[in-house]
Amino acid sequence: MKNVKVAVVGAGVVGLSTAVCIAEVLPYCSVTIIADKFSPDTTSDGAAGILFASEFPDIPLERQQHWFKDTFDHLYTIAVSSQASEAGVLLSSGYQIFKEIPSDKTPFWSKYVLGFRPMTDREMKRFPDHKFGQAFTTIKCECSSYLPWLEKRLRKAGGQIIRETVKDFQQLGRSYDVIVNCSGLGSRSLVGDAEVYPVRGQVLKVHAPWLKNFIRDGDGKTYIYPGSSYVTAGGTRQADDWCLEVNKMDSEGILERCSRLEPSLHGGQILGEWVGLRPGRKNPRVEREWMQVKGRQVLLVHNYGHGGWGITLSWGTALDALGLVRQSLHERPPKARL
Ligand SMILES: Cc1cc2nc3c(=O)[nH]c(=O)nc-3n(C[C@H](O)[C@H](O)[C@H](O)COP(=O)(O)OP(=O)(O)OC[C@H]3O[C@@H](n4cnc5c(N)ncnc54)[C@H](O)[C@@H]3O)c2cc1C
Ligand SMILES: *[C@@H]1O[C@H](CO)[C@@H](O)[C@H](O)[C@H]1NC(C)=O
Question: What DSSP string runs through 77-98?
Answer without folding.
Answer: HHHTSTTHHHHTEEEEEEEEEE
